[in-house]
Amino acid sequence: MLTVLCVALISYLIGSIPTSIITGKVLRGIDIREHGSGNAGGTNVFRVLGWKPGVFVMVVDAFKGFAATFWISRLTFGVAPFEYETMQLIAGCAAIIGHIWTVFASFRGGKGVGTAAGMLLALYPFALLICAAVFAAMIFATHIVSISSMTAAITLPVVLSIFRYLMSRPVALSLYVFSFFAAGLIIFTHRSNIKRLLAGTENRFGQKK
């Protein structure tokens, strides 16, 4: 059990690396959370600092989730009391939690979408491809990142349900249960966006605040 806790802690610390905040400090000497939407995520970096820093932050945030899920989970060396797939979920979830509530920046991080995408890339790339397609379609239709992110998150348990129960494709029960948790968590982190959507004041993609 100690090994499991170590994996979770290391994954949390990796997820906690505040990529957007570091990028804002290095490039402009600012706290990205005090500009744009106030979120420490790739979309806000894109809005405030430009597309190149934005893409960089998004890629690194996704890599944090992938690294924790694909590599850090292996540190148990087969002595964990769980199956390997469960260890991957533990490591990936810890990275997502670290990204959202980063210990390096007063527990004020991003919304977890990019890190969750990296985690899903390690777990089930085909499901990620479908969610990414839904995200792209929603961006094209609405130009609103928050709607696109939440729709893609909701798509994950729907897709895995179809795979598992209608198409009889192999989907681990732990991953299936996680998909509902992930969708709920992404919606929770977007609660301020939901308020702005209801008020009609949510930013559109490419629009500077």
Write a short abstract of this structure.
By secondary structure, this protein is mostly helical. It has one domain (2-199).
Can you tell me about this structure?
With 209 residues, the chain is an all-alpha fold. The chain has ten helices and no strands. It has helices spanning 2-16, 19-28, 42-49, 51-70, 84-100, 113-123, 125-142, 145-166, 173-189, 191-199.
In whole angstroms, the N-to-C terminal distance is 47 Å
Beta fraction of the residues? under 5%
Contiguous low-pLDDT stretches (5 residues minimum) are none
Based on CA inertia axes, which overall geometry fits?
A: globular
How can the largest sheet be summarized?
none
Structural class: mainly alpha
- Average pLDDT level: 94
Number of strands: 0
Count up the domains: 1
SSE string: HHHHHHHHHH
The helical percent reads: over 70%
C-alpha-based Rg, rounded: 17 Å
Number of helices: 10
Element layout with pairings:
Layout: H1 2-16, H2 19-28, H3 42-49, H4 51-70, H5 84-100, H6 113-123, H7 125-142, H8 145-166, H9 173-189, H10 191-199
